[in-house]
Amino acid sequence: MADNTIVDANGFFGEYGGQYVPEPLIPILNELADTYNKFREDPDFRREFEYYLAKYSGRPTPLYLCSNLTKELGGAKIYLKREDLNHLGAHKVNNTIGQILLAKRMGKKKIIAETGAGQHGVATAATAALMGMKCTIYMGEVDVERQKLNVFRMRMMGAEVISAQSGQRTLKEAVDEALSAWVGQAEDTYYLLGSAVGPHPYPVMVRDFQSVIGKEAKQQCLEDEGRLPDVCIACVGGGSNAIGLFADFIDEEGVKLIGVEPSGRSLEPGQHAATLCLGKPGIMHGFNSYMLQDEAGEPAPVYSISAGLDYPSVGPEHSHLKDLGRAEYEHASDSEAIEAFFKLSQSEGIIPALESSHALAHAMKLAPQLGKDKIIVVNLSGRGDKDVGQIEEMISKGELSLP
Ligand SMILES: *Cc1c(COP(=O)(O)O)cnc(C)c1O
Fold this sequence. Notes:
The protein has helices at residues 25-39, 43-55, 67-73, 92-105, 119-130, 141-146, 148-156, 171-185, 202-210, 212-225, 240-246, 275-278, 316-324, 334-348, 354-366, 385-396, and strands spanning 12-13, 16-17, 63-65, 77-81, 110-115, 134-140, 160-164, 189-191, 231-235, 256-264, 280-284, 287-291, 327-333, 375-379. It is an alpha/beta fold. The chain folds into two domains: 13-53 and 92-206, Rossmann fold (3-Layer(aba) Sandwich); 58-89 and 210-396, Rossmann fold (3-Layer(aba) Sandwich). The chain has a six-stranded mixed sheet with strand order 3-4-14-9-10-13, sandwiched between helices. It has a four-stranded parallel sheet with strand order 7-6-5-8, sandwiched between helices. Pyridoxal-5'-phosphate (PLP) binds at residues 90, 92, 119, 195, 235-241, 308-309, 353, 355-356, 381-382. Its EC number is 4.2.1.20.
């Protein structure tokens, strides 16, 4: 797991992060931070974590050279880190395995989690079933309606799904309700957060569990190319797959790190979720970070074609890396993501998640500008099977045509 290098004892990355939560949550979070510190380097804990990553999720995932796509674009070599080949089809299970093993060490019997698009809910329900824990997932009522199949998957694996009825009835309300439910039952219940966001210690823990992505990619690139990549690219929603890829490269100054946010339909307010590109620092969900805000400083409405990327804040470590200039943050629109979605499907026979398609879209812009001796690693955070229905519907409505 990555070294706890740039976070301080109070959970700040520079000025970002921290614990901006109601009083009763502070001792609960501090207990979690202490337990995590105790186990993060514990050989038994790490052995068990690595065991499930390998045997349950199928790691290591390959680093795959896209020869056809590279040839077509005529520039830098494009490699994909194949997180889509994990159990459940995305990187999210790396984190749920890590946190659920920690919950077990803490003697917890129940898991609660929030989910927006449902992917984190599914990964949590699966790992809770695996570990024999009771599982409750909070999901906004609107999302429950939109993501019926994922709700059914969670229920099939034994989880209870509670629909959040307040406010906009989406992810933000699900988080609010899950956090307040946690306060009353923290004795036997673990809150399993799905991205590198939230109050300390979640951003550090989630990064460490996801850092297996970059560790493997680094090793694999050294084996295949005898050197490190020139550029690493990942999409950014909450920022967990991106920080998981970046973590082991942060100290490698020759490696450029690029996070790609969704610019949706346009850069007008409410039409995108490009938080680092267009937001400003603010506090929500218990931490300080770049945030898209309305005039009153409240979280602004966000939009992306990809349900896994529409979050108005972002992991605090990314805000810090942006201010330091160590990582760059760019954006890709819905239509650029769709173009990349079809391009990878047709050039390599790999259907990417719409989230990951944003990272690919940027790689496709960049590759032709770089020499053939350059190497780009793109984190293919998930597979696109979950998005095929959405794309098919757009085609049948005439909003899109198959290239
Ligand atoms: C959830 C998800 C994301 C976005 O989450 P991050 O925390 O930003 O990584 C990206 N890709 C896929 C496939 C996802 O399921």
